[in-house]
Amino acid sequence: MTLTDRAPADRPSADRTPTDPRTPAARNPADRTPAARAPADGTRRDAGAFSGARRGVRRLLVLLCLMPLTVLLARQAFRLPRLDTAPAYGLVVLAGTITVLYLAYSRYEDPSTTSGPREPDPGFPALPARPRVDFLLAVKDEAGAIEACVRSMAASDCPRVRIIVVDDFSTDGTRDTLIQLRDELGITVLLLDENVGKKHALVAAAGQADAEIIAFTDSDCVLAPDALRRCVDALARHPDLGAVSGHCRALNADVSLLTRVQDVWYEGQFRIAKAAESSVGSVSCVSGPLAVFRREAIVNYLPAWAGDRFLGAPFRFATDRQLTGYVLGQAWIGRSLKDRYRDSPFVADEDHPERRWRVGYVRSAHVRTNVPSRFLPLMRQQVRWKKSFIRNLFFTGSFMWRRGPGPAVLFYGHVLWVLAAPLMALLHLLRAPLQGAYLLSLLYVCGVLLKGCVWGLAYRADHPGDTRWRYRPLMSLFSSLVLAWLLPYSLLTVRRGIWSRSAT
What we know:
The chain has helices spanning about 25, 35, 40-75, 85-105, 145-155, 175-185, 200-205, 225-235, 255-280, 295-300, 300-305, 320-340, 345-350, 375-395, 405-435, 440-460, 470-480, 485-490, and strands at about 1-5, 135-140, 160-165, 190, 215, 220-225, 240-250, 290-295, 310, 315, 360-370. By secondary structure, the protein is of the alpha/beta class.
């Protein structure tokens, strides 16, 4: 591995503060710390009472909006003992949809704008008022996208950030671009002399990191200037948060119908699915476009992450889900993992207690990523994600039940839906027509479209006047008719894999 020369400063942007007077950070970053924002006790009590009343009203409104679905579920639930497997599965999906929507819209609160507990748990030490951040990026053959990504990282209004970019032996001109950006922006660049894979490349970058917070993004992403700061604020406000995910949409949404459909789908996966998980402190995947961790929550598990094996072979997928799993489950599996890698500097040089961290989602931390604009790249991406799901099922699934009923229901309910999707598609789209049960096939398709319409209406509620909500039913149909079949294929080829960020 070759380490290129840094910019003249030892820590190029560690003490960088924004100078744009339009940003709050430019006025005084310390004013945004939890301590500086804390009001007097009387004001806090009044604000708490008002906030509680507002939450009560919000929950009532959400229940009223969900009433039609709830009535439909209640009517069909009485028939459950007499229903076949397929209709019973439909009821489970409906119940899950209602639950997720209720949690996302009535229980979720953005942790970057809400105060933490009045008396923090001493088991979770508070971060400094202005924590240092090491912002890591691994890249391979992304000459066309890497400059926009790195410039958006450097444009962050978060103070005390150092950017470390590691090139995993690119051969398309990416290295030349990174060297130019290093000289201009003062970032740190690592050039690897062989291809080692994304996880090993990021661990190499983490070896250069020493900040209280470690953040990651992907090489095809562009971040809003305040995205990283909002995630850091969330960790500073809530000491029991070990990690948070940002909110991602499609960067190239206007390229084609396929990208527009994915853009609306991304919105729901973050705004609804991750918000529901965040409401119980157990987001199961801190997604790569913007993943921000407290150092002590992950540093001891980086060698296990890099050396992860599945079914007797190195596993090069599951980068996001697996790293999140170490935060969620270290109270139960952390000690054994650290013992296995006790000779690694990440373990030998600093040993942090295994804590029951919460994992959250910051809706206000916006990042955009290039999504596949053609069918075959989309299929390759989905196969990678299915393989990540399979690996994570065996890892996170082994302890998620210990985190309580809320996290368990959300996690295992999602697992049930994904595992059953290919079987349901087989029964309704192949077996039923062969037996002449065309009505059953039609009802299945209508049920899929109904679920998509519900998610589409949720999008419309969040984005009044935006007509793109109509694409959401198309994604539900595409998922059931096409993507569901990829799970068996992914399982059969789970040991095969390379990493690439290309979305074209």
